[in-house]
Amino acid sequence: MLKFILRRCLEAIPTLFILITISFFMMRLAPGSPFTGERTLPPEVMANIEAKYHLNDPIMTQYFNYLKQLAHGDFGPSFKYKDYSVNDLVAASFPVSAKLGFAAFLLAVVIGVAAGVIAALKQNTRWDYAVMGVAMTGVVIPSFVVAPLLVMIFAITLHWLPGGGWNGGALKFMILPMVALSLAYIASIARITRGSMIEVLHSNFIRTAAGEGAADASHYSAPCAEAGAAAGALLYEASFRGHHHRLNGH
């Protein structure tokens, strides 16, 4: 596992380098500057600001200085928030993103696997069709469309949950963004789990168990549940590898 993570990190370096280079030159070659706004600054003031942030240096000098800063873990100053660096802003927001992402991950695995198992055990029934219908809807609708709909329904119309804020990570503030982030993964996990479960239910092992009189589902529910959980984990492994689109194509 450690070798896999290290290999993936090393493979990401060239991609990151290309993205950093493209974004840097696009920002530097765009008209205006980060300090060009509605209020026009006197030329001497603008010149002093650009000198402070080394924006008047040759573009290649800026580029290599930027790479040197990145190599030391310094993302530079924030042009929007005075007296703050990008590192400060990332450090303040990362715990929130990490907590929300982990919560969405758990929600997607639990609900996705459970829905897939139910759909497989109730194959070709209304339960199966309902789960797969919701799953397909969750796959095709992106989270940036689902999120405002959830806010409009549960925050603005019903007043059940807050429509924004964090409040130290209180549960009621996490529910809507957590659901919006996890819906697509819930749908994909449910589909994959259902397929894996159906394959197991039609395997020789299950047929043999049923033929030997093990009519009680408890005799073979464990291998079915393991297959469903493995299918759910497969999706997250694939999304970590960057092949989530391949799974959605099956």
From TrEMBL:
Residues covered by the ABC transmembrane type-1 domain: 94-250
Keyword Membrane annotated: yes
Lipid metabolism is among the record's keywords: no
Principal location listed in the UniProt entry: membrane
SUPFAM superfamilies: MetI-like
GO cellular component: plasma membrane
Keyword line: Cell inner membrane, Cell membrane, Membrane, Transmembrane, Transmembrane helix, Transport
Entry's family note: Belongs to the binding-protein-dependent transport system permease family. OppBC subfamily.
NCBIfam families named among the record's database cross-references: PRK09471.1
Gene3D superfamilies in UniProt: MetI-like
Annotated membrane topology: Multi-pass membrane protein
Name listed for the protein in its UniProt record: Oligopeptide transport system permease OppB
Lineage: Bacteria, Pseudomonadati, Pseudomonadota, Gammaproteobacteria, Enterobacterales
Subcellular location: Cell inner membrane; Cell membrane
InterPro entries: BPD_transp_1_N, MetI-like, MetI-like_sf
Single GO term (MF): dipeptide transmembrane transporter activity
Membrane-crossing residue ranges in chain numbering: 12-30, 100-121, 133-161, 173-192
